Structure to design on (97 residues):
């Protein structure tokens, strides 16, 4: 099962979370208001997940995937973009600005 942590706490403990993922083999789901935002997995886990052929997903992974997938698209809070210094924005190909 993945370890869940609020984004405010994750920000303060990022180095520790990275160590838990890399050296402890844990998966961390960062949440905001109880909803999953992102998942931290090791580079080895990511490589394995990307190289796997579609097939049955272990129950533990299915729980993380369904939690993150159910979130869908989330709009940034007002002012968040400037606060975190974001300079790029993703637009879907069908959207024209």
């Amino acid at each position: 099962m993945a370890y869940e942590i609020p984004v405010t706490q994750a920000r303060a403990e990022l180095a520790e979370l990275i160590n838990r993922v890399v050296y402890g083999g844990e998966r961390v789901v960062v949440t905001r208001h109880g909803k999953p935002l992102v998942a931290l997995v090791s580079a080895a886990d990511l490589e394995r997940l990307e190289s796997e052929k579609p097939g049955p997903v272990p129950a533990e992974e299915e729980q993380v995937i369904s939690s993150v997938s159910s979130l869908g698209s989330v709009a940034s809070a007002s002012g968040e973009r400037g606060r975190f210094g974001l300079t790029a924005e993703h637009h879907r190909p069908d959207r024209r600005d």
Notes: The first strand starts at residue 3 and ends at 6.
